[in-house]
Amino acid sequence: MLPKVEDAPLLPKSLQALIDQLHRILYPMCYRLNRTPEHGKVDVNPDSINAGVQAATDVTVDGLLEGDSVMANPLGTLEAGLIFNGAYVPADNTLRILLYNATGAPIDGAELEWVWVKLD
Q1: Predicted TM-score of the model (pTM)
Q2: How far is Cα 61 from Cα 58, in angstroms, rounded to an integer?
Q3: What secondary structure letter does DSSP report for 7?
Q4: Are the C-beta atoms of residues 87 and 72 closer than 8 Å to each other?
Q5: If you average pLDDT over residues 17-46, what whole number do you get?
Q6: 116: how many CB neighbours lie within 10 A of its CB?
Q7: Residues contacting 112, CB < 8 A, separation 6+
């Protein structure tokens, strides 16, 4: 038969303080890990990008706020020579995708569906 919690000896104050401190630190982290982040899909159709140039393509994503941290990724394959160089939120409801043309000729990228995730 297992002893009841009431029968257990009290923890030393220093150990109890450590447990309390860990709880204060870890509980919010676990809460954030267990909830579903804001995410979605959006069509991105970049304009023609000249050789050796980075260009920004803005798309509307309702609910994003200026300065939000985001991750984005195309669901298809970018054209050879186009390099995804980041995404950010420059204004409310706007997701900006940065693409770099690493070739010696202009590239007019095809429209692709992209996924995005808002980070906390």
Answers
A1: 0.71
A2: 9
A3: G
A4: yes
A5: 75
A6: 21
A7: 43, 44, 45, 74, 75, 76, 78
